[in-house]
Specification:
Blueprint lengths: L15 H7 L6 E7 L2 E7 L12 H15 L9 H8 L2
Antiparallel strand pairs: 1-2
């Protein structure tokens, strides 16, 4: 297991073997989390903000209903997209 040294201004260098295995390139973003006594880095993708969208009256009603469901905890979690699609077809 490669060691990583904390340098000036708390900077670290990820070993090339790890970067290559995860496809991490210069400029990529990593989310840093603390899990117990470990630091966990999770690669993240940032997206541009979308332009404003105008919903129809029905669309606004559906969005309001969906947000209320989320607030009430009426949500399902899926392990992957295929599981979600299977549930939609039930």
């Amino acid at each position: 297991m490669p060691l990583v040294q904390v340098r000036e201004k708390a900077q670290i260098t990820l070993p090339s073997k790890i970067r290559k295995a995860l496809g991490i390139k210069e400029g990529d973003y990593l989310e840093a989390e603390v899990e117990g006594n470990k630091i966990v880095f999770v690669p993240k993708v940032l997206i541009d903000k979308a332009e404003a969208v105008t919903l129809s009256k029905k669309g606004e009603e559906m969005l309001k209903e969906a947000l209320e469901d989320v607030k009430k905890g009426k949500v399902k979690k899926f392990k992957n997209v295929e599981e979600l699609i299977d549930d939609l077809h039930k």
